[in-house]
Amino acid sequence: MNDEDAKKPAADEDLIDIDSPEALEDPDIDERFAELEAERDEFKDKFMRALADAENSRKRSERDRREAEQYGGSRLARDLLPVFDNMRRAIEAIPQESRETNKAVIEGVELTMRELISVFKKHGIEPISPEIGDRFDPQHHEAMFEAPLPGTKAGEIIQVSADGFMLHDRLLRPAKVGVSSTPG
Questions:
Q1: Are 87 and 116 within 8 A, CB to CB?
Q2: What is the distance of C-alpha 76 from the center of its chain?
């Protein structure tokens, strides 16, 4: 075996010398070319799908990260809302005549409530505080009862039992209200 024979690949019948005149006349070349184009298109399609899938995964994980950052503390916030309610009820339950003797305790509870509201606001939690006479909004209010009340129109808030809260753009808890059923 000489050096030239060693450099040649062993029996490659599939390889076509495109410079030879026979290659251009080979009837299988068009078929082989079409096969290679189809294979190329298949790989390109798979590549584009994998690229799109990777981009979708990146976007999905970014959205999930943002949502976890914004709404991750919603369970803790929801669990703290009764604490806020109880502190408000405690202040409202103190009779007017004993307010002066319990002034320090009342100030402490009010200070704690203001601090709790400040922490809520810092984390995107905003109170929903409807007023008597406001229109009932089922997106932000929960009707605890309906009652006819003279001088009101149907759908007006006649009592506020508890404030509601929003966490950014999501309802954390609806405001609990009583609604007038007086016919208009």
A1: yes
A2: 17
Amino acid at 166: M
Indicate if the alpha-carbon torsion angle 25, 29, 34, 36 is positive or negative.
negative
**46 phi/psi in degrees, rounded to 5:** -60, -40
pTM: 0.64
How does pLDDT run across 81-107, given as a tens digit for each residue?
999 999 988 888 889 888 888 889 889
d(CA 116, CA 121): 9
Whose tokens are 């509601």? That residue is 164
At 145, is the secondary structure helix, strand, or coil? Answer: strand
DSSP string covering 12-46: -SS---TTSHHHHH-THHHHHHHHHHHHHHHHHHH
Give me the helix-helix angle, 103-122 and 74-93, nearest 10°.
160
Which residues sit opposite 175 in a β-bridge? 141
